[in-house]
Amino acid sequence: SIDRIITSPIPSGKSIAPQQAAKIADGLFYQSAYVLKKGKTLTAITEKPGELLPAAAKHGFTESERRDVLMGKRRMTILIFKSSA
């Protein structure tokens, strides 16, 4: 078991369909629930935070913090999820 995961999951866009991005997010949270210690965190930076929320809730993660940042001119969101499993 580990204490923290930091990632930048692939968002939907020109090369990834929304359904495929949802499947990737689901796999990320499924595996994270397996390897993270209870109460520890997964931190993700993404342009589309809404794509991560359903998968996080499905696998027992709660959003504990959200920060909007700029990467050049790109608006990104840092989400910190806490595991409950």
Q: Any overview of this molecule?
A:
The chain is of the alpha+beta class and 85 residues long. It contains 2 helices and 4 strands, in the order βαβαββ. A 4-stranded mixed sheet has the order 1-2-4-3. The longest helix has 18 residues, at 18-35. It is globular, with a radius of gyration of 12 Å. The mean pLDDT is 95.
**Count of distinct strands:** 4
**Helix and strand sequence:** EHEHEE
Quaternary: single chain
Query: In percent, how helical is the residue content?
Result: 25-40%
Radius of gyration: 12 Å
Give the N-terminus to C-terminus distance in angstroms: 12 Å
Strand order of the largest sheet: 1-2-4-3
**Class derived from helix and strand content:** alpha+beta
Low-pLDDT parts are none
What proportion strand?
35-45%
Number of helices: 2
The average pLDDT value, as a whole number, equals 95
Give descriptors for this structure.
4-stranded mixed beta sheet, alpha+beta, 85 residues
Task: Give a nutshell description of this structure.
With 85 residues, the protein is α+β, with helices and mostly antiparallel strands. It has helices at residues 18-35, 53-58; strands at 2-7, 36-46, 61-71, 74-83.
Task: Give the SSE map.
Layout: E1 2-7, H1 18-35, E2 36-46, H2 53-58, E3 61-71, E4 74-83
Parallel strand pairs: 1-2
Antiparallel strand pairs: 2-4, 3-4
